[in-house]
Amino acid sequence: MVTAQAGRTPALRATDRAAALERLMPGYPAPRYWRRVPATGQHYVDLGSGEPVLFLHGNPSWSYAWRKVVDRLSPHARCLAPDLPGFGLSRHLRPAAGISDPYRAQLDHLDLLHRHLVQNEGLPERGWTLVLHDWGGPLGIAWALRHPEVVARLVICNTVAFPWPSDFRLPFYLRWIRDHPRVADVVHLTNGFARAAVRAGVHHPLRPAERRAYLRPVARRAERRAVTDAVRAIPRDNADPVWRLLEPPGTDAGPTALPMLICWGMRDPVFTPDLLDEWARRCPHASVHRFPEAGHYVMEDAAAELGDRVRDFLRGTR
Prior knowledge:
The chain contains 13 helices and eight strands. By secondary structure, the protein is of the alpha/beta class. The chain has a single domain, classed as Alpha/Beta hydrolase fold, catalytic domain (Rossmann fold, 3-Layer(aba) Sandwich), CATH 3.40.50.1820. The chain has an eight-stranded mixed β-sheet, with helices on both faces. Strand 7, helix 11 (273-282) and strand 8 form a beta-alpha-beta unit. It is globular, with a radius of gyration of 20 Å.
């Protein structure tokens, strides 16, 4: 038996490693599609060819959330799904000093990611599509404001990039974590926010292996600081300085005037249909598609149709 084990071929060992990875992270692209930004160690998936499509995840999530849509879309586009610093397989940021710092730090890392992809990976400097979800929404819009010449179109998925409407109220559990340090400490200790999200965030339950994959990067307390910091950085009111990052200069309409596809999970307990209505009011030119049987993680509950909608959107706006 020892002799047989020693005689296994490298190809067979590679097959075993791939099978083990599939058990740990079912459906996630193989390591041959994994990359890192040399300057920061930020991890990202790079799959497919064609026009660049950048997927920005939210909190508490990572690029694993996009695996099904990336698989669907990669025959038609260059799909780039980074793990924001502090999340997933990226290196972790130090705790932020102020409420707006997490946003600015993430924007700086997006700058470095874009520079790396253009200078080292041969991607075009312009003509990018952003697919934005949850916390990735304000980050993506703020980054597009930094670089108006880069972004050509937007796909909006259950997120917000404007001050809360007057009648909107965050769920109590998010307000508790945000506003009460002791509650935040308990949630951080127990990983309660991430554990709840993988169940409450979908309408169609994830398989146990998928839930474990979502939670794997935050299994240890030291690795989940960014999750807690992101909740505590949620704007409290319309005077919060975070919103200033999303204001276009002067009379410029900003990136929200770009061609836009809105794909919305209608069973989201946080980003409710009222926020979709506000998007539609602010961006009447947008094409809106509602997924009545999808929750917050619309890319899980409606992956195939979402991928096809994005594909058709890209074709129709070239």
